Amino acid sequence: MNSNTLASLSRRAFNGAIASGLLLGPVAWAQTSTPVRAIAEDYYRGMFALFPLEATENAGDAAYEAAFEIDIAPAHRARQRAFYERTLARLRELDTAALAGDDRITRDLLAWDARDRLALMAVPYHLMPITHAGGMPVRLAQWAGGEGSQPLKTSANYEHFLERLKGLPGYIEQAMANMEAGMASGVVLPRALVERTLPQLDGLLPARLEDNPYLVGVRTFPAGVPEADRPRLREAYTATVRDALVPAVTRLRTFMRERYLPAARSTSGLGALPGGAQWYEMIVRSFTTTDMRPAEIHELGLREVARIRGEMEKVKERFGFRGDLQAFFKSLEGRPELTPFRSDEEVVAAYRAINDRVKAGLPQLFERSPRAPLEIRPVDPLQRDTASSYYVPPAVDGSRPGVFFAAFTDAKTLATTQMTALFLHEGQPGHHYQIALQQESATSNYRRSAWWDAHGEGWALYAEGLGRELGLYDDANAWLGRLQMEMLRALRLVVDTGLHAKGWTREQAIAFSRENDGSSEDDARRAIERYMAWPGQATAYKVGELRILALRERALAKLGPKFDVRAFHTQVLGDGCMPLAMLEAKLEAWIAAA
After folding, report:
1. Measured between alpha carbons, how far is 115 from 96 in angstroms, rounded to an integer?
2. Could you give the angle at the alpha carbon of 358 between the alpha carbons of 355 and 361, nearest 5°?
3. Could you write out the three-class secondary structure of 403-425?
4. Which of 63, 102, 130, 211 is at a distance of 20 to 30 A from 490, taking alpha carbons?
């Protein structure tokens, strides 16, 4: 997700597919409208008018398919500020005391959301608009083949996307002006991230025009585009790319190589920038939806890393391995029993077998389950080299199930170790239960699409842990997979805060990760550079999981024999995604009432 997106929709999940309502489209709600729901609908529509690419990526809303906004421009940022302030003013006019339960929650969510976004406008994301983790030029190139969020199935689809491409040169000019302003004020990217970005820009400028990634969609057309339209569309795309996009991207590449790279900083974290420590504290509060300070999160991460390492030492003994953890991790690569698959069908069958075991135990843990079924499919072959496993929510009208897409490059090299924990996280009772149930109970488009990483990803990480209660981790290999995935989230607490609040170097963070999870140099580098480019987001997962676990322990301690884990899960999921502070207040009231 690119940095301007971080400023506009900072809590969205990084890969964009899970927990995003991808391709669901808006719903005309049959429920009786209320003043709060009217504000919620205006907010939902207003946000997509400001950020139309998010309407495509996160809602599949065709009304915004051709729209393009330069949301890093000063005038647009003024519109954003005015929109959030106007929403808050409308909410203040409501008679809060007269609001019913659901409308009160909607009002509180809207107020939290608008205040949070307004506060985050103080963070100068707009001065660092192009990173290796996403920038508008690369984002549109990724959509240009019709395999991304932008639909390219009809002539109208192609004409709409062409309008967006025509807006890209203006965006690039604004981005360079912003980066000039950032250079003047000392707000620039780390040099390592600029060096990662330059090859991406090179990839947008192949020697032959016909190889340009912006033209992938017009090399061949889908059946929905009539033969008569194809020459016209191909010529229009070619002219736009040749005469506007190639010159603009060339100017950007030259600027970043000759002007920006020499001005890039040697430090790695946001805290090294003037005002950066305060910005990072704001970002951490936004992502964790708590009052936790970076130092507190760092210490929490260190404790969790130590705890999980202790559990890994015990698992190592169950494998019969003598030696240190690093050697143990290395030894797993040579165990043929951990890579038993010979075909894609065998992998899918193994995931379905896990699902069968999960489904059998879920009635013991949940009062209700989603009406929408869950299917398991391998990712499309075109995505195999780049995709991670992910979840796509069901269609609200019931026309499509929820889908867990399993990603693997080669079935013969896929290890079974993390499959159980991954399914619990991405499938059920992780994202499928949280998102599908939210869709079924929502009273507005806003409530259906509301998302906070700390709750949504925290729940999915908590759901991984439910594998113990489901009897899925009696197997040492599966339990190790859970610990590996949990360690990743614990490490994030340490390295994210280390980079951005404690002055850690990129190399220091890479070394700490490798020491504790056995990752390769390249994998660790990629992860650390992601956290450098997207401060704070990585802290949400583990903070969310631990807060849910603490609420469960609190409820058990206070309710004793009256505690019902099924009822507890209903309370955690029943009103959809929300900030942890709101969830905690809700659970405290439930405990008191019980």
Report:
1. 17
2. 150
3. EEEECCCCHHHCCCCCHHHHHHH
4. 130
Phi and psi of 355, rounded to 5°? -60, -40
Residue ranges of domains in the chain = 129-186+191-264
pLDDT at 5 over 50: no
pLDDT computed for residue 385 by the predictor = 65
Cα separation, 17 vs 115, whole angstroms: 26
Token reading at 40: 């919620």
Q: Which residues of 85-103 are buried (b: 16+ CB within 10 A; e: fewer)?
A: eebeebbeebeeeebeebb
**Pairing outcome for strands 374-378 and 390-392:** unpaired
Supply 264's token pair: 């890039």
Query: 351: closest CA among 430, 405, 431, 413?
Result: 405
Beta-carbon contacts of 481 under 8 Å, excluding residues fewer than 6 positions away, are: 416, 417, 418, 419, 420, 421, 422
pLDDT for 396 equals 78
pLDDT digits (tens, 9 = 90+) for 315-335: 999 999 999 999 999 999 879
Distance from C-alpha of 449 to C-alpha of 444, rounded to nearest angstrom: 9
Burial of 382 (0-12, 13-18, 19+ CB in 10 A): exposed
- State the distance between the two ends of the chain, measured CA to CA, in whole angstroms: 42
What pLDDT, in 10s, does the model give residues 532-562? 999 999 999 999 999 999 999 999 999 999 9
Please give the model's pTM, rounded to 2 decimal places. Answer: 0.92
Alpha helices, DSSP H only, in 386-539? Answer: 419-426, 431, 437-441, 445-449, 453-465, 476-501, 506-517, 521-533
C-beta of residue 438 within 8 angstroms of C-beta of residue 22: no
H-state helical runs in 518-564: 521-533, 540-559
Q: Contact 396/423 with Cβ under 8 angstroms?
A: no
- Tens digits of residue pLDDT in 139-164: 999 999 987 889 999 999 999 999 99
The residues near 139 (Cβ < 8 Å, ≥ 6 apart) are: 2, 53
Strand ranges inside 57-158, DSSP E: none
Using 50, 70 and 90 to split pLDDT, how confident is the model at 32? low
